[in-house]
Write a structure and sequence with these properties.
The chain is an alpha+beta fold. It contains 24 helices and 13 strands. The protein folds into 2 domains: 413 residues, no CATH class; 152 residues, no CATH class. Helices cover 55% and strands 7% of the residues.
Length: 602
């Protein structure tokens, strides 16, 4: 079969496998969402809507105070995915941001697998071997785990192409160095605008691969080869610096920037346990109870981040390929880089069976760099799965070639070897599989206030205080705002913002007066620690409206603990209007002043 025809077959296979991942979820569904209608999922929906909307309205897509009003937040320092926002803009305008989010998640799997297939086909020379390796990359435990809630981590068709360009620049060196350098620059810039973390990890892996290459291929290093590579990289560096200078500057020095790690990585449980590659957790299709109970503790119990699992059969297959084909330096080289990446993904200290030992690991050097403090070691599993795919593809292509050659010894021996390898292959694939489909949930019913046009009464560009307040992980107000086409700004929301000391937090910074923020936040999140509802808090509620420029207050009476919020608002502003199925206070400060003048002691 020709390469083109086989690629079409591969695309159909990858599409069928993706249907299995998300079944019965429709790729452009507007009424359901992968994972949950909360937390990171709704935040990413918000980001997909914001980028094209801000550009169309002449606003800076790297900053917004439409959420977390009045200070706003820095999108360059968040996982804003501006490239995906622009890419999906037509779908967003036609069907909504939720449909865009679902479609991009769905496309992540076949596009990533197809990208890997193209690269592996060129490196291995075999359609079947490339199909096998691409399946391991495109449907790895990393992909299934991150495919629940992290679009910016699972949309990864570019990493295989980036590493292939680096291979051309440093190893093959055929054709124009200028062309390869510019192509590499375009891919890297696009990856940064999808996920800075994945792009940073590409740099880390490339640096490790270069060091290993200097050892494995030291005799081939020459002045001419170094000049070619430097010329390509320097030419590529120019557009990278020009295009990314402003976003990078804005991230580190723009308004609402923060210092340090976004995820507290120095103490993060998100690192590969030494047993994590061979002990399955409950997210794997084959996970005996005793082993699952051990692995379920890895990554702080977060299955979605435990993407480093390979399984014993696949580890044996990788070892067999590396030993058998050790004379082929490309195989040996890839296997060595894989080992380095696996060691890096173990984080700053060695962890075995969820116990941390005082053994310093190389990740300490990486995490010490200011620009890489937010990178999480466990997410190197993406590149580990790509390297696994390459080793397997090279081994499979050699096996296929060997089967085509006339046997040198008894045919029974050859048949026995092929059967044994076939059993190992099937076992590797079975054990490597992750449980699917990924859970999808219906979106909460949009209040009729927003669906029947009542929200048009909110002054455009004004500030709205909602209940429930959008605090992690509850985000209904973010859905209301997106459905209203950003008609109004919102107090609260989910984004990474600086604390008063400049460190990162995922919770909205409490607005003054603090007791009101605590009251609304705690009731919205369902916690028990509350300021007392008394006359002082009511006065502070009126002050809160003025200090935060609140024009309208919206309450969903069906929300948890809504009665407590309604009591506070009614005591401060008087009875609400019932608009559709929402309680509303328009012109909130004026209503508070009028209510106070009528009910204050004479």
């Amino acid at each position: 079969m020709s390469a083109t025809r086989f690629a079409l077959v591969a695309a159909l296979i990858f599409a069928a496998l993706t249907l299995r991942v998300y079944w019965p979820h429709w790729p452009v569904s507007r009424h359901s969402i992968v994972g949950c209608a909360c937390g990171d999922e709704i935040q990413e929906v918000w980001f997909l809507k914001w980028t094209p909307w801000s550009i169309a309205h002449g606003l800076n897509p790297l900053y917004s105070n439409w959420m977390d009003y009045p200070k706003g937040f820095n999108l360059a320092a968040n996982t804003a995915m501006p490239a995906l926002g622009v890419l999906a803009a037509p779908v967003t305008w036609l069907l909504g941001a939720v449909a865009s989010y679902n479609l991009l998640l769905w496309l992540s799997f076949p596009l990533s697998a197809l990208s890997a297939f193209w690269v592996l086909r060129r490196l291995s020379g075999s359609n079947l071997a490339a199909l096998l390796g691409a399946t391991l990359y495109g449907f790895s435990p990393y992909m299934i785990g991150e495919g629940v809630a992290h679009l910016f981590l699972v949309f990864v068709p570019l990493p295989p192409l980036i590493l292939y360009c680096l291979y051309q620049v440093t190893v093959v060196q055929e054709g124009s160095a200028r062309r390869w350098g510019l192509l590499l620059a375009a891919l890297f810039v696009a990856q940064v605008l999808i996920s800075q973390e994945v792009a940073a990890e590409a740099v880390i892996v490339a640096a490790c691969a270069l060091v290993v290459a200097l050892v494995v291929y030291r005799r081939e290093v020459s002045v001419e080869r170094v000049r070619y590579a430097l010329r390509a990289l320097l030419i590529g560096a120019v557009p990278v610096v020009v295009i990314l200078a402003y976003p990078v500057y804005y991230q580190f020095f723009g308004p609402q920037h923060f210092t340090g790690a976004a995820h507290a990585t120095s103490h993060s449980p998100l690192k590969l346990d030494l047993l994590g590659t061979v002990v399955p957790d409950s997210s794997q299709s084959i996970a005996p109870g005793a082993l699952a109970r051990i692995a379920n503790r890895f990554m702080g119990g977060d299955y979605g981040e435990n993407g480093g699992y390979l399984g014993i059969p696949l580890v044996l297959a990788l070892g067999l390929i590396a030993v058998t084909l050790r004379r082929r330096r490309g195989v040996l080289y890839t296997a060595l880089v894989l080992v380095v990446v696996e060691v890096l993904s173990m984080g700053q200290s060695l962890t075995i069976d969820n116990h941390t030992f005082p053994v310093p690991m190389p990740w300490r050097l990486v995490n010490a760099l200011p620009s890489l403090q937010s990178a999480l070691a466990n997410r190197l599993a993406l590149y580990a799965s790509l390297l696994v795919a390459l080793v397997v593809a090279l081994g499979a292509s050699e096996w296929i070639a060997a089967m085509r050659r006339p046997p040198r010894g008894p045919t029974r021996r050859r048949m026995g070897v092929n059967i044994a390898l076939g059993v190992l292959l099937v076992a590797s694939l079975l054990v490597y599989q992750t449980r699917t489909p990924i859970v999808t949930v219906p979106l909460p019913t949009l209040p009729s206030f927003f669906s029947n046009g009542d929200a048009a009464a909110i002054p455009e560009g004004s500030t709205v205080l909602t209940y429930p307040l959008s605090v992690v992980p509850n985000a209904p107000a973010m859905i209301w705002q997106v459905s209203s086409d950003f008609r109004w700004k919102m107090v609260g929301g989910e984004a990474i913002v600086p604390t008063r000391r400049g460190r990162a937090t995922g919770q909205p910074i409490a607005d003054r007066p603090l007791p009101v923020s605590q009251f609304l936040t705690h009731w919205s999140a369902g916690t028990a620690r509350l300021p007392a509802l008394n006359a002082r808090l009511i006065d502070q509620m009126r002050e809160y409206l003025r200090l935060n420029d609140v024009a309208t207050v919206l309450v969903d009476p069906a929300a948890n603990n809504a009665a407590h919020a309604i009591t506070l608002f009614a005591d401060a502003m008087g009875p609400p209007l019932r608009e559709g199925d929402m309680d509303v206070w328009f012109h909130a400060p004026a209503r508070a002043d009028a209510w106070l003048s009528r009910h204050s002691p004479s």
